[in-house]
Amino acid sequence: MSALPKGHTSVSVNRQTPWEIQKAVVFATFLREIKNRFGRYTLGYFWALLEPLAYVAVLSFIRGRFTDAPIAGISPLLFFAAGVLPFILFRNLINTSVSSIEANLGLFTYQRVKPADIFVARFILECLIILSVVLLIFPALHYSGVEVQLNNFLLLVLVVLLTLMFFAGLGLLFTVLGPFWIESKKVVPLFLRPFFFISGVFFPISSIPQDARIYFLWNPLLHATELIRASAFANYTSHDASLVFLAGCGLISLALGLAVYRICRIKIVTSGTIR
Amino acid sequence: MIKIENLTKSYPVKGGRHFVFRDLNLSFPPDVNIGIIGPNGGGKSTLLGLLGGIDYPDRGRIVSENSFSWPLGLKGGFINHMSGRDNCRVICNLYGLGTRKIKRILEEIKTLSGIGRYFEEPVKSYSSGMSGRLGFALSMSFDFDYFLIDEITSVGDAQFKKLAKDALAEKANRSRIIMVSHSMTDIKRFCDVAVLVKDQTITLFENMDEAIRAYLPKTRETVEDLEALIPEATEATVKLGPTTLPESVDKHLPELLALLQQIEKSLSNISPRKLHDPAGFHRSLGDVYRALENPVAARKHYKISGAEDPYHPETFLKLGQTALEMGDWHTAEQALTEAEQLDQNHPGTLRFKAHLKQQQGDLPTALSAAERALRVDPKDDQSWTRRAAILLLLERPEEALASQLKAHELNPDAPEQLRQLARILSVRGQIALAQETMERARKHSRDRSPISLSEPLTTLHQLLRQL
Question: Are B256 and B460 in contact (CB under 8 A)?
Fold first, then answer.
């Protein structure tokens, strides 16, 4: 008797280049993340879009009760959307990074999967979610009569890249932190909460009193939101936000993240419950 | 070709590091199947993990041009809330297969694993045997140069074991295997060379028998020599698998078998919920099968009983002992875990733990379990005997003798205990006394009446009334 059926397919894995392997792994973990995040819920993908929309709606509604005046020269809807989206990306990235090793310990049974692949897959996924909200929200606002006028597209691309660099470095740092400090899953979300209030999500820098402003300006996320608005929208007036500061924070964070990852890449995989 | 260069591997433990390997150098001959043997905790699975690239050495490296599978074992590396199909799809994606190929492969995995509709169910609903099967079927879709197998041949039922063995044999022209197993029979059957992993080193043996001899404690040989001198002595020490009882054993046998058939038939017709006490029913049925020396059926009924009533330690001990007699360590370990959860200090549980750990070669744990059992119940001759057996394997014959004499004091006529006493005496060189003791053991086992089936018969009659 033959155990394997006739014509049984089996695939050789010997001739794959490192690049092919990396691509396959990131792609597979990416698909898995999608399934993991949304597959279990009805209307799965919809939830990812709903949250930022709800934030913008609630903030605009509250403000609309008091005044219709533009904020720092642009419509409140645009203002809130441009503040909420980077914040949500930041928060989701850090929160998922902390638990990403633990959630994927099973995958490390397959030698080609490295923690970095999982990080990259999650990073791409989070960015794509936010990108799809951007592509949904701004054209919608434009067609419903809100004036959306692009200021400086190239500058916007630069600011977004720097911001993503900053996020990626932090994300890597927290990916490594997760398995070393199990309480981080509880503590990190707590720490992230105040960032909603100090990162200029619903107010411009110019509305912060001069005396307090120098303290607020230590927060790179505030610079990021402010710079994104300034480069995206014509008419937006912004002072004090510094591209150099954001770039510096981005570089330091990425370098630190990569270094820590490099040092601990083996420990975090074996730290878990493989044995 | 696999080459290990200056390999050092350690794990942090409380107050320092535990070194599994230290400055190891070794080349495996190319194109052979490799069996890994050694005591528990010796580093067999660590070696497999290092070869598979999912664990990393502190220093040194493993050089090889070949591809390795992931270590195939009980844990599948699956995501619990995703279905078997989705899990397999993810892993096919990991290995970069195209969509059309994946579709075909998934159907083949479904057939080969034999888990049927469960393929569409979340993996969390699987038994460990099922996820082992699925992982195995999945791995068969790839051509690795080496398949790394961690005790997979001990997963699941006999039918699957056979399938796994045949499938591996068919792969033999393209792939080699590296396997960890406690079963020397499997190692001998599949592997060309063996490596003994023990005391921070790895030793390569081209001759399988030599490897097995180096692994098993020396005392075993002495005992075997003695038993060759006294031929009949082996008869009871070697436990055979399922055997059929000769008709002459007891005049009740035909009646018993007829009753059993009747019970099995009505059982398949009624829902188990209809029974007044399903757990007790199946436990008694298990006892009957055990008396009939049919451990497969006994294990089945004990399992059902344990599932119906998970708060009865006796069931799990019986299940564990039956499984252990059959060499089904996986079930035995599960049963032990269940029993320990109910009562860690039950002398029966501790005695069983000692037995299981002894069989698995984890002698220190076995010894401490036996001694704990004795602390709870110092008048238990079986625990003394168990302790003696472990001490003998630990090459401490003096203490073994003291322990065995204690058992002898408590129960002077048990043939099994006399036999072990003889073994200990022979290890100490007192051959004449050993032979005399063995003679006594033989006399006592002859005096014992043939296996009585009247008790199972009464049980069956009672059970039948319940139906």
Answer: yes
